[in-house]
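W.,

You were right to be curious about this one. When I first looked at the sequence I had no strong expectations either way, so I just let the prediction run and decided to look at it fresh. Below is the sequence, 365 residues in total, followed by the output.
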Amino acid sequence: MRPMHFDLFYELSVPPFMQRRETAVYAETLDELALAEELGFRTAWLVEHHFMPGYSHSTAPDMFLAAASQRTRRLRLGNAIFPLPYHHPVRVAERVATLDVLSQGRAEFGFGRGFSPVEYATFGVSMADSRSYTEEAMDIVRRSFDGAPLSFAGRHFQFENLEILPKVVQQPHPPLWTAAVSPDSFEMAARLGIGVLVGPFKPWFMIREDIRHYRAAWQRYHGDAPAGAGQNPRVAMTLGVYCHESAKTARERAREPFEWFYGQLLNQTRPVLENLYESYEYYRKMGKFRGLLNKTVNLTLLDTLGMAAVGDPKHCIKRIEALKKAGVDHVLCAFGAGAMPTEAVRDTMQLFADTVMPAINGDGR
């Protein structure tokens, strides 16, 4: 079994109850990434969201990751995700390549459709066109990595003989990932031969089935051979984490920030869960499950459903061992659910690195 990679996940939240300024969130997060590199974490992932005050102030993650590239030397830097319908794919290709150059080959490229009706309306894109737009955009970005002049004639984009600059450092290109929520998105990822980024949208028992589906589909499309240079099937799952020597203390300290974070997540996804948007039918089906969380967003339920890992090292090890056994390759740790003071986040990162990571992977972490 391959070793598990331990990553970090950030929304750059600014919870009102913490009374912490945006400037402090940005500065403290950069400090946490420097510490993460020292502790042996592999990748830092940042989302892109817009118009979500409190919950997410990460509107330009590639700029933040560019700053992080100058504070670190080994930590890999990932977009989770570029919502392609909001951007011209040539600009995305240029920005990914710029990050790859600045980081000397540490960029990871995650893409997806996004899910916010407000974002779609603001950026002038129809949600009904999201799939076709994303597939065309992804094709363009992927082909841009070849370095040759690029031409394209599609439904949404047309251009001829463009020289995309700068060129990516990694060969053949940065690792590719896609956000995966519906079974169709896992199928698409397997067909394209790229990794899946699984967010905190669904309970573990549903994700476990999605992983089975993804790996079976990969086998159908590619057999035992990886699809492209080094692009093996890869599953990365976001998990809210707070680890403390005392399980009781962990639960007491994590209750308010975790319940706030997941409550905010529910509020942000509610429009697409409760209303039927073309090409987002699966979200409507998930809305039936969300009715349960809507009434009882509490830490006990989140832990029971496998959407968070809060407790002592023994509890966290047990939870993550189950993920590894089911085929999760990367755990994207949202330490403190992005809603705890940086001192608490740094302490739990240290404890996690000292106890959980060696228990899962041995001394190699």
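Here's what jumped out at me. The two ends are 14 Å apart (CA to CA). And, maybe more interesting for your project: The domain at 5-364 is CATH 3.20.20.30 (TIM Barrel).

Coffee later to discuss?

I.
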